[in-house]
Design goal:
The protein is mainly α. It is built from ten helices and no strands. The protein is globular.
């Protein structure tokens, strides 16, 4: 027997899987880099078309929900409305409006993302999910800017805008953000198939806003009203956020597991639906 040949064969067996793993890792890295380049191209197109071809235009986008918050605060402040909970009317409304507007703005603009960027689907490398994720990334950055500016303004106005339980406040914010992305994927795919759905969803966002508990305490309502409202992920986020701000706030309606499961299911089912209807979406 040729022992040198056996040794060479063993060496090939040892090195083979490693080389395959390296090739596989290289392929994954290249695919990820390609996806990032595509998302960057979509984001730049959005900046040029939606944000006035300038970075300052993108900053303006973060001011819309901020203006929404403080115009409403001004109206209630002028009307001398009592604070439903806590010592500051501004902080109370902010703890409700920030998660509510985060959900509605992110999901609503994601619902329009594919149909507004449909010409980019003419390039084979661009997929529907790339457009959705690029818009989600832009909306996340805009939401972060809105949050930072809101906290700064509240602080400058003499309020304490920081929660007593920072960890739970961050978890509530991130979970409703994930839910917004999941619902946005659903809405974006459906809008691509049925464009009128974008209008229906915008109207539905008004209902979500009014029933969110941003302007009142949901847990203080009778169970006949509070429990049905608690099935809304936005209500869950608002109640979770307020329980992180106020030590004595009732958390009887808060179900963190429900909100997290809703967020995860919406994301994965939305991605699955995009995969199922991908050819229909691309072919128009």
């Amino acid at each position: 027997m040729n022992f040198s040949a056996v040794g060479e064969m063993d060496l090939d067996l040892d090195i083979g899987p490693t080389k395959k793993g390296q090739r596989h890792g290289t392929w994954l890295a290249a695919a990820l880099q390609e996806k990032l380049h595509v998302m960057k191209a979509v984001m730049l197109r959005d900046l040029r078309t939606r944000f006035f071809d300038h970075g300052i235009g993108f900053l303006i986008v973060s001011w819309w929900p901020l203006a929404h918050i403080f115009i409403l605060l001004f109206i209630y402040q002028v009307s001398n409305r009592a604070t439903p909970f806590g010592d500051s009317l501004r902080v109370f409304f902010a703890t409700g409006l920030i998660p509510t507007l985060l959900f509605t703005y992110v999901s609503r603009f994601m619902s329009l993302s594919v149909i507004l960027n449909k010409p980019m689907l003419a390039f084979p490398v661009v997929q529907v999910v790339d457009i959705l994720m690029a818009r989600a990334a832009l909306e996340i950055v805009a939401a972060a800017l809105t949050l930072a500016q809101a906290l700064l303004i509240l602080w400058l106005m003499g309020d304490n805008p920081f929660p007593y339980d920072l960890e739970q406040a961050v978890l509530a914010y991130l979970t409703i953000l994930l839910a917004a992305i999941g619902v946005g994927i659903w809405a974006g795919v459906i809008t691509m198939i049925m464009p009128f759905f974008a209008t229906l969803y915008a109207l539905f966002c008004i209902i979500i806003y009014l029933a969110s508990g941003s302007l009142f305490v949901v847990s203080a309502l009778p169970d006949a009203f509070a429990i049905p409202l608690a099935y809304s992920p936005v209500v869950q986020a608002v109640e979770w956020m307020r329980s992180a701000y106020y030590p004595s706030y009732s958390d009887r309606l808060v179900d963190k597991t429900y909100l997290l499961h809703f967020a995860l299911v919406s994301v994965f089912s939305g991605l699955f639906m995009e995969r199922v209807f991908r050819r229909i979406l691309i072919e128009g």
